[in-house]
Amino acid sequence: MPSTRSQTQAAIDFPRRKQPRTPVAPAGAYRDATSNPTRVTLLPLSPGETVLPLSPRKRLGDDNLCNIPQSLPCSPTKQSKKENELLSASHKGRCLFFSEQPTTESPGKRKNLVPSLLHKRQETPRSSERSRLNKEPVCNQLFKQESTCYQQAKSVLHTAVPDRLLAREKETDAIRRFLKEHVCGEKPGSLYISGAPGTGKTACLSRILQDFQNELPGSKTIVLNCMSLSSSQAVFPAIAEQMGQQGASKVAGRDLVRKLEKQLTAEGTPMIVLVLDEMDQLDSKGQDVLYTVFEWPWLIGSRLVLIGVANALDLTDRILARLQARPKCKPQLLNFPPYTKEQIASILQERLRQVSGDQVLDSTAVQFCARKVSAVSGDARKALDVCRRAIEIVELDVRSQTVLKPLPGCKSPTTSASVSPVPRRVGLPHISQVISDVYGDRMALGNDRASDSFPLQQKILVCSLLLLARQLKAKEVTLGKLHEAYSRVCRQQQMAAVAHSECLSLATLLESRGILALKKAKEARLTKVSLKIEERDVEHALKDGVLVGNILAGGRL
Fold it and tell me: Model-level pTM?
């Protein structure tokens, strides 16, 4: 075959992974192959040597030996599967290295190649980890999430009387001075406490009476909730039973009143502190019951100190007008204003500080709840209820989950990591969900501005009453008709309306501020509602002439 390359071109030798048995090739063809098969060396050819084609495909039979180094004296020994894997892994990533001086490896190093690779294979992290796991027993197991922190938080957010009352220092001092002056000084008198629901009237009074038990050893305290009475006349038998009169329910009304008056003015009778909570429920025809009760402290030789509690701010001026003619019978007045957002936030934070460990509620969630509740009612009980319901939502979600924890008595690397006692904190979305689901979208969507004297929903209710009274040409309307008119006005203004039960709460708040007058009935829908201020003063009282003008200019309902 004719030569196709020049005389000075060098032969390139490449090692093969598996060495087949081949006959002995001419010595000049691979003069330097045995010295370093992994090196590329340029060799000058003598004029008499045969030059093979460059392409292996053009060679036939024994001529196709240019890339095969000197064969081994015998076939390679069989190796195990693991050794083959190690050797194949060791060849990965290898590349040709060109150098001028060829290097050789000693046979001893080649023989020790497999044992060293096996030793390195045994020292890998995966094998060491597997051996450690086989030696140590499994100490972790799935457990239900603990919810002790949530239960503790719910227990401190109850509506019972706390040990310390915040934001009511002024009112508490006034009640204490009244009791010291009249009970300790054995001087009869009367006190009327007014305020919206949830403003701390009953809580403050109950705490003070508990503290005064040691200071008033010779007195007797009677506390009645008028909501539990079947009628206004039932208050007299209830008082008689508390004062020790047997069979008082069988005595006629007039006779029972005379017996009570005789006992209250008898010599040697201890000072009696009579507390009538929800006193406006004693409203009756002619107001005979209320007049009788307020006249008892001013009987000759009376030993009674009367304390009445109700929502209406001007109950004594509006319902008991005849007391104005007798100045001695007129009670002292004490009003509890609604809580502000700062006061509600401080109440919630004070309760939550009683729980040890991390806080369950985020500070942003507390501030959000305080702002929304203060904008609608200023009811601290409602704020406590919102937070308690939000904690229940998170607690149910956490209880449905499982967590990997170490078994008792086992040492696990996971025990060194600190686990938070609060799996999940109550955030702003949970508070917003409770406000929206339970109390309506009005609290979640309402626009509350701290500078306004009246919340937006109360303004709309007053404007709806004014518009309805103009159309019906009546001063009094039922709460049911007022709620229907209020709902239509909210739809016209593209705002969320409150439910019927919340409408009564709004009307009660407006009554406590002297804007509306309520005449309660057996059914809430039949409660009579009327304006206590002139129509021309509504705009000035609400401090929002734009809203009043828009609603009144809206036409018929």
Answer: 0.58
3-state secondary structure of 223: strand
Contact criterion met (CB below 8 Å) for 179 and 294 = no
Q: What are the tokens at 270?
A: 């201890």
Q: What is the pLDDT of residue 336?
A: 94
Pairing of strands 476-478, 528-531: antiparallel
* Distance from C-alpha of 427 to C-alpha of 305, rounded to nearest angstrom: 48
What is the bridge-based pairing of β-strands 189-195 and 332-336? parallel
> In the numeric block, which tokens belong to residue 230?
């079947």
Q: Cα torsion for 163, 166, 171, 175, to the nearest 10°?
A: 10
Asked whether 466 and 511 are in contact (CB, 8 A), the reply is no
Paired tokens of 426: 């109550």
Q: Identify the CA nearest to 422 among candidates 194, 185, 146.
A: 146
Bridge-based pairing state of the strands 402-406 and 304-310: unpaired
Measured distance CA(289)–CA(438) in Å, rounded: 38
User: To 5 degrees, how large is the angle CA 402–CA 404–CA 405?
Assistant: 115
Q: Where are the alpha helices (DSSP H) in 14-112?
A: 81-91, 107-111
**Within a 10 A sphere around the Cβ of 170, how many other Cβ atoms?**
9
DSSP per residue over 25-49, as a string? PPTTTTTTTTT-TTS----PPPTTS
Rounded to 10°, the helix 479-492/500-512 angle is: 100
For 430-448, what is the HEC assignment? Answer: HHHHHHHHHCCHHHHHCCC
pLDDT in tens, 494-550: 888 888 878 888 888 888 777 888 887 777 888 889 888 777 677 666 666 677 777
What amino acid occupies position 453? S
Amino acid found at 250: K
- Among residues 305, 272, 296, 423, the alpha carbon closest in space to that of 357 is found at 423
